[in-house]
């Protein structure tokens, strides 16, 4: 099994990519850029996939991270693709992902090289 630390790093790297994709872009511009939307959504899916692969025991030790919500968003993006609300993707990418990144970095510091 892959170490938890690597999944957490995957989350941080995907969050960093989202930040790059949306640097200096407002919501209106993003909504008109299909390629950018799809790129952001793919990285949100990566975040959800990494969260889903973390062991339940690990997630239960770190309830400060909304693991079920992260995985649920991934499931909607993958299985209900045509129901994706791009405004929710925007909010997720610009508000929730940066906060998640901050929390994951804190968690990485806390767990060290375990």
UniProtKB/TrEMBL annotation:
One of its GO terms (molecular function) is hydrolase activity. Keywords: Hydrolase, Nuclease, Nucleotide-binding, Phosphoprotein, Toxin-antitoxin system. The keyword Nucleotide-binding applies. InterPro entries: HepT-like, HepT_RNase_toxin. The keyword Membrane does not apply. One of its GO terms (cellular component) is toxin-antitoxin complex. This is DUF86 domain-containing protein. It comes from Winmispira thermophila (strain ATCC 700085 / DSM 6578 / Z-1203). The lineage of its organism: Bacteria, Pseudomonadati, Spirochaetota, Spirochaetia, Winmispirales.
């Amino acid at each position: 099994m892959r170490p938890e630390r690597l999944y957490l790093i995957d989350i941080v790297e995907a969050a960093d990519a989202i930040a790059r994709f949306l640097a200096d872009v407002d919501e209106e511009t993003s909504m008109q850029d299909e390629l950018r939307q799809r790129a952001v959504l793919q990285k949100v899916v990566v975040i959800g996939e990494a969260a889903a692969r973390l062991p339940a025991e690990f997630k239960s030790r770190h309830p400060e991270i909304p693991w079920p919500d992260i995985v649920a968003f991934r499931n909607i993006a993958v299985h209900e693709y045509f129901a994706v609300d791009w405004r929710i993707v925007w909010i997720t990418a610009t508000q929730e992902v940066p906060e998640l990144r901050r929390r994951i970095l804190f968690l990485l510091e806390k767990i060290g090289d375990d």
